Amino acid sequence: MAFSAAWATRGLRAGSLVRGPAAGGGGCSVLRGPAVIVRRGLGETVVGPPLTDLQGNLRHVQNFFTKGASSYNEFKQQCVSLRLFAFGGVTAGCVLALFVDPPKSSYWCRWSPTYLPSRLKSMFFGTAPPLFLTEPNNHKTDVTAMVKNIVHPKIGTEEEEQKAPSDKNKFKVCVCGGAGGIGQPLSMLMALDDRVGELCIFDLNIAMVPAEGVAADLSHLERPSKVKAYSLDKEDKPIDKLSECLSGCDLVLVPAGLPRKPGMTRADLLGINAGIAKNIVEACAKHCPNAVVGLIVNPVNSVVPAMAELYKKKGLDPKKIVGVTTLDVVRANKFVHEVTGAPLEEIDVPVVGGHAGETILPLFSQVEAAKGIPAEKLKELDKRVQDAGTEVVNAKKGKGSATLSMAYAGARLGKAVLAGLSGEKGVQECAYVGSSISELPYFASKVTFGPKGVQTVHPLGPLSDHEKERLIVVKNQLQGEIEAGVQYATGNQLA
């Protein structure tokens, strides 16, 4: 019995807290319950204020940093009070962090303190199903789909996966002149397009870089498209040698022809480059008559009408012939951005008319970002877009022309054509095509591309007074250049 009483007394002392004199006598009251456990964790059997007396504990903490302790017991009490505030601060900080930046785990999302109130609110005032009944009773696990997702996980959002082209929307593209200054970067940019399943690079053997070298270089890119090369001698006819290259093509881009040299008239340049374009267009008419043919052959204002009229004489759709004037749009957009600082994605300047000198007419009045530009500055921008090609030639000191920006612009049009062919809705770019929006049979304006190529040629829209005046000049000059192309077609025909 004595043994049991002794151990009981020791247990009482170990689990008790002396709080001061009892209310009814000179003994000490004993504090029991959860407070005993907490106090023992902070420092058992220490005489001092209770845990709930924050002011008293704070006074001990202040004495710890200012006065110090006069006895060991007082020092222990100061340490207990200090740990009380330290632990409380850490705990409050952790709780606050959980609410400010909560964990992303599903366990926290489901069992956090904020889950149940929000769940109850949605149950009674929203459309959420009852708690713990979020799945139907007849739920079945698709084991096959589960294994497939593990072996081939989905990468990207569902929206991105829907936009990604399927195998049936992969197209065959050919770049004729693909080893040249424009052709090489253009070929690379088209190889990067996810819609391109097969890319053909064609050029003559006399090119400074063999087409086979360009194709080998591009074949190392991290893209699934197949890249093939085709070369011809100068005397070979494309219609006889490019059957494999062009058969099944959906888009043919033609950055070919000679640059204009000093002393050469536009008629001279047309006679040479129209012949080069004719050889390729002739081969397209035979091997891929349904392909869209994008011409980057100067002078575009005359070559495009010439080739379109030859297609018409052959009984083919002349709207398959598209003049690439996108570079004028690209330049106008960049120049407006430089002046206004507006985001480039919010700038889309329609450039109409033709693709040379004064026939280039940017419609700045139709762009929201350009409405704050003074009228005189707009006239300067108009002139700069017209002369931008000369600006590049001068900067290169006559050793080159706008090859890189032209390749970028050509790829931009090519991507728009492929997007339309794949069924994407509302794909628009400015292009120089057969048109009825003015009295001229060929005109550059906004074009919507669809599953068969050119789908809609859009009218010019509202013009400013300056643009109306410029339009008269554009038409007068463009008319003569179109007639030169039509006249070329009159004296020639496709094989």
Structure description:
By secondary structure, the protein is α/β, with parallel strands linked by helices. Helix content is 48%, strand content 14%. The protein is built from 19 helices and 13 strands. A six-stranded parallel beta sheet has the order 5-4-3-6-7-8, with helices on both faces. The protein has a three-stranded antiparallel beta sheet with strand order 11-12-13. A hairpin with a 7-residue loop joins strand 11 and strand 12 (442-450). Helix 9 (183-191) runs parallel beside helix 18 (404-421). The longest helix has 29 residues, at 72-100. The protein is elongated, with a radius of gyration of 40 Å. It starts with a helix and ends in a 5-residue tail after the last helix.
Quick overview of this protein structure:
It contains 19 helices and 13 strands. With 495 residues, the chain is an alpha/beta fold. A six-stranded parallel beta sheet has the order 5-4-3-6-7-8, with helices on both faces. It has a three-stranded antiparallel beta sheet with strand order 11-12-13.
